[in-house]
Design brief:
By secondary structure, the chain is mainly alpha-helical. It is 66% helix and 4% strand. The protein is built from 7 helices and 2 strands; from the N terminus they run ααββααααα. Strands 1-2 form a two-stranded antiparallel sheet. Strand 1 and strand 2 form a beta hairpin. The protein is globular, with a radius of gyration of 15 Å.
Length: 140
């Protein structure tokens, strides 16, 4: 699935998308196009995005932004030589699941959006593990 998402991100991301919200809009569109690749039940993929989901993205704007921020942290962790899943993604998903506030489908949107954002960063970022990130991860 990660290869599909990365390729979709590269194909769909306009060169002019520069602000966080412009990139978020592209990431959300790619997430909608790929939600059926995620699991909504243990052995069942999610249904494709509905017209209602396309009209109004299923995650609130603040949640969508937070997912992208976690993906940035995940990418920073990987750049610093850490396991991004252990440092960032898994704790986020565990917290969301344990809250009981999100459906399996909403959690699938979170996972796919995180993957799209992470893939976009892998392909387009000149990110470096700087002192601030090393301190963030307790490496200094």
């Amino acid at each position: 699935m990660r290869v599909l998402i990365v390729l979709a991100a590269l194909a769909a991301a306009p060169a002019h998308a520069q602000t966080f919200d412009e990139v978020r809009a592209v990431v959300e569109e790619i997430t909608l196009e790929n939600i059926q690749a995620a699991l909504c039940q243990p052995n069942a993929n999610c249904a494709p995005a509905t017209e209602a989901e396309r009209a109004t993205y299923p995650l609130p704007e603040d949640m969508s932004r937070a997912v992208m921020e976690v993906a940035i942290r995940s990418y920073a962790a990987q750049t610093c030589g850490l396991d991004p899943d252990q440092v960032s993604f898994i704790p986020m998903m565990q917290g969301l699941r344990s809250s009981g506030d999100f459906s399996d489908r909403e959690l699938a949107f979170v996972g796919v959006q995180h993957g799209v954002t992470f893939g976009f960063l892998e392909q387009s970022s000149q990110f470096e593990c700087n002192a601030a990130w090393r301190q963030e991860f307790g490496m200094e």
